[in-house]
Design goal:
Blueprint: H1 2-27, H2 33-36, E1 38-43, E2 51-56, E3 59-64, E4 67-70, E5 73-77, E6 83-90, E7 95-106, E8 109-115, E9 130-136
Antiparallel strand pairs: 1-2, 1-9, 2-3, 3-4, 5-6, 6-7, 7-8, 8-9
């Protein structure tokens, strides 16, 4: 009889352990381009208006220093930690290749370090590059009210 209780108890413990690993794994989901879609605003800097807009999987627009530019190409490598985000921006005379790293802190906050004319660091550092925090801009929806169609008061005009 003791053996049955020991075996049943062991099975229950194994089931609980596998369940806890599954549920905690869902909280640590890996970021993807879908998680980043939206408008992100640079916070905590003197340059108000800095923004990163990820419109879809092929369109990203950066606003910085009063200039708004669509990226001519980019690569987001989600297999790296932090995420490698390389992009190309067309300037008046040339195309700039910019390397950066980013970390998704929460659904509404990203840590982003940009390395303009230097090699990318493998981790966040204060020694080179520019470090930004981006917060997601919540878009307020506008509700419009359309008049209801009333069958009782509907008049058909005939010629």
């Amino acid at each position: 009889m003791k053996k049955i209780f020991v075996i049943a108890g062991s099975l229950i413990l194994l089931c609980l352990q596998s369940f806890s690993q599954t549920s905690s794994g869902q909280n640590n989901r890996k970021p993807s381009i879908q998680n980043l879609l939206g408008r992100w605003e640079i916070v905590g800097t003197k340059d108000d208006g800095g923004r990163l807009e990820i419109l879809d999987s092929s369109t990203i627009v950066i606003t910085y220093g009063g200039e708004k530019r669509a990226l001519s190409g980019f690569n987001l490598d989600f297999t790296k930690s932090p995420i490698w985000f390389d992009f190309f921006v067309n300037d008046s005379s040339a195309t700039m290749n910019v390397k950066s790293i980013m970390e998704v802190i929460s659904d509404d906050l990203i840590k982003w370090q940009v390395f303009m004319n230097e090699e990318r660091a493998s981790h966040f550092t204060s020694e080179k590059g520019e470090l930004f925090y981006l917060k997601r801009i919540k878009i307020k929806s506008v509700t419009t009210f359309a008049p209801q169609w009333d069958k009782k008061n509907y008049i058909v005009l005939k010629n």
